[in-house]
Design a protein that fits this description.
Blueprint lengths: L11 H11 L3 H9 L1 H13 L1 H4 L3 E5 L5 H8 L4 E6 L4 H10 L6 E5 L11 E5 L12 H12 E8 L2 E9 L2 H17 L6 H9 L5 E3 L11 E7 L11 E8 L4 E14 L12 E4 L11 E12 L4 E10 L7 E9 L2 E9 L9
Parallel strand pairs: 1-2, 1-4, 2-3, 4-5
Antiparallel strand pairs: 6-8, 6-10, 7-12, 9-13, 10-11, 10-12, 13-14, 14-15
């Protein structure tokens, strides 16, 4: 896990250039398309809303390789505007032609905020979710598209997002911390003083993106925030917050909080269960996705027993250094004792731009 160091604040144009440039490589698109949970959810979510798409105009925000645009064309869209700011737009145009939908899908290279469409649209589709839902801040562009181009009563795909949290136990972490106490027995040199140092290094302020095993989740999930994509504003995304309360299943050591999200697509009507929303979940209780889960380590593990309460508040907001990068502030009490007040972030990986 990398250490999080303070970076100089990047100009917005530099942030955007670095962000879009990261999508010019094949690897990130391979990872997303290969994520069958993600890709199938969009394919089915679009198909189930075929009645709302058929014969209508659709805007695909951040189209990438254009797979969602092709899905919409296959669902009967009259016109799909596939807007993509990175150079992967060139490959998207080839994919559109290869799938014989070039007469209905128009790939537009440019930032959503800068492009002009010839007409309002009836549907907006976008796969905008980042780690812990809001990393990369692509949702802001989707909201700009909604406010500028979506007809009144138009459809958002997906239309709703939820954020969840639960306490977790990290057995690998515990093994790593115990290791330093075992060195003397192995080699005759006492290195137990390294334990506190190791704890500070590992249980730092980074948002660790990793797959959490079901058996390591210590309570039922608590939903702490919900976003209605038809109504939420850009201003509200600057401070997404909520409270949570979890009761632990049994005796264990809480080492972190685990955050994940779910988005849902309208059911599309038609009865026979067709009105039930289709949910794409990144929960550790569901099949793994490329988003995995966001793990927020406490300063040190805390022992809990059956029904020990873990409660607090979570606040999510953009980093001051780079608005596309997410910070998560946690106020957390375990068993009624104040254990945690900590702000986490995902290291941006950007060089110190001159």
């Amino acid at each position: 896990m990398s250490r999080c160091t303070k970076k100089r604040k990047l100009d917005k144009s530099v942030q955007d250039h670095l962000y879009f440039d990261s999508y010019a490589d094949v690897s990130i698109h391979e990872e997303m398309i290969a994520d069958s949970v993600r890709t199938d959810a969009y394919r089915l979510g679009i198909a189930r809303n075929g009645a709302a798409i058929r014969g209508k105009a659709v805007l695909d925000v951040g189209a990438g390789t254009g797979v969602l645009s092709v899905f919409c064309a296959q669902a009967g869209a009259r016109k799909v505007y596939a807007v993509e700011a990175s150079s992967i737009a060139e490959q998207a145009a080839q994919i559109v032609r290869l799938n014989a939908v070039a007469d209905r899908v128009e790939v537009i290279r440019g930032r959503l905020e800068d492009v002009e469409l010839p007409e309002p649209v009836d549907v907006i589709v976008s796969e905008w979710m980042g780690y812990a839902l809001l990393h990369e801040s692509m949702l802001n562009s989707v909201l700009v598209a909604r406010d500028r181009w979506l007809r009144p009563g138009g459809l958002m795909l997906p239309s709703r997002a939820e954020l969840f949290v639960a306490p977790v136990s990290d057995l690998v972490l515990e093994e790593r911390l115990r290791f330093w106490g075992s060195v003397k027995e192995r080699y005759g040199v006492d290195m137990s003083c390294m334990t506190d140092f190791a704890r500070r290094c590992i249980m730092n302020r980074d948002i660790a993106v990793s797959a959490v095993a079901v058996e390591d989740v210590l309570s039922h999930p608590a939903r702490f925030a919900e976003l209605d994509l038809h109504a939420v504003t850009e201003q509200e995304l600057q401070n997404v917050r909520g409270t949570f309360r979890c009761d632990c299943f049994g005796s264990a050591s809480v080492s972190a909080l685990c955050v994940w999200f779910a988005v849902s697509f309208p059911g599309g009507g038609g009865g026979g269960g067709g009105d039930k929303p289709l949910v794409l979940s990144t929960s550790p209780f569901k099949a793994e996705t490329h988003w995995k889960q966001a793990v927020l380590y406490l300063d040190e593990p805390v022992e809990v027993e059956q029904d020990t309460r873990v409660e607090g508040e979570i606040r999510m907001f953009p980093s001051e250094e780079s608005a596309r990068h997410l910070c998560i502030h946690v106020e957390c009490a375990v068993g009624g004792l104040r254990q945690q007040s900590k702000t986490f972030s995902i290291p941006d990986g950007y060089p110190d731009v001159q």
